[in-house]
Amino acid sequence: MTEVELIANELAGHLHDEVMPRLALSLFRADRVLAGAAGPTDPVAELRALRSELAQSLERLRCLAAALKQVQKAAQLKAALKASAALGLGEAGPTPTLSFDLSQTAALPPDVTELICRVVREGVANAVRHGRAQTIRVELKREPGRVRLKLSD
Fold it and tell me: How far is CA 113 from CA 31, 81, 85, in A?
């Protein structure tokens, strides 16, 4: 299973186990208030509590959506790096084997992603052209305050 699939499964679990039960409870409470069956409680107090539950559910959904967006951007970065490396191989001579270590990547700003892709494309092309590389390894790691890109053959 890919990293994206693992994260998607985790997010689906959060939706199923946390958000959906809260929304179901909120719906039940709203139905009770509408039917006047809230019992001896004040309908306004019941609506305030319901509003609070809904606000919490909405905030949790926002957090989950933001996490999913980050994972999606990281997956796009990985795909872009692999495509850039393939472009750097060109069509001349024997094709070296490419391997990637992108496990510690996270979403990066678009301008940084574009720059890294250019460096990968040029680095792979140079390894093929000037180093007659048989195997080229591309590693990208995000560290506090910086990104480390390593190309080796």
Answer: 50, 9, 13
